[in-house]
Amino acid sequence: MPTPKMSREQINEALRRAGLDPADWDVTGITARTNSWIADNHAELSDPEVKTWSAELQAQHYDEFGTLAAVDFYEQCVIETGPDSAPWQALQARVDGNEFDTWEPVWAAPKP
Fold it and tell me: CA-to-CA distance for 32 and 77, rounded, in angstroms?
């Protein structure tokens, strides 16, 4: 299975969903950081050894690596990428206020 990726448009949609203007942010950098995170998770999920594990261990592994949570996306991919001129302080306050903790994941792998 090829490594999944999010497109620039999907990143723009995720930014807009949070009320952010993509023009304020480094969408190319955010896309690269997001896709790097997804690739790392995909590598964890597609490791051949995982298929030898019990169903319970596989489910726990999916719970850990099967999604890119909205809070992680906005804090680790968007804020960390910036740029410094972006309104990241306001977004950080929203992250710190747990606003994104209950949002649907930005990306989810197919369940095994």
Answer: 9
State phi, psi for 111 to the nearest 5 degrees.
Answer: -70, 140
Pull the structure tokens for residue 36: 């790097």
57-68 confidence digits (pLDDT tens): 999 999 999 999
Tokens of 4: 């999944």
Cross-strand pairs, 68: 107
Burial class (CB in 10 A: 0-12, 13-18, 19+), 108: middle
Q: Helix, strand, or coil here: 80? A: helix
Q: What is the pTM of this model?
A: 0.91
Residue 55: enclosing H or E segment and its boundaries?
helix 55-65
CA angle 107, 98, 45 (to 5 degrees): 30
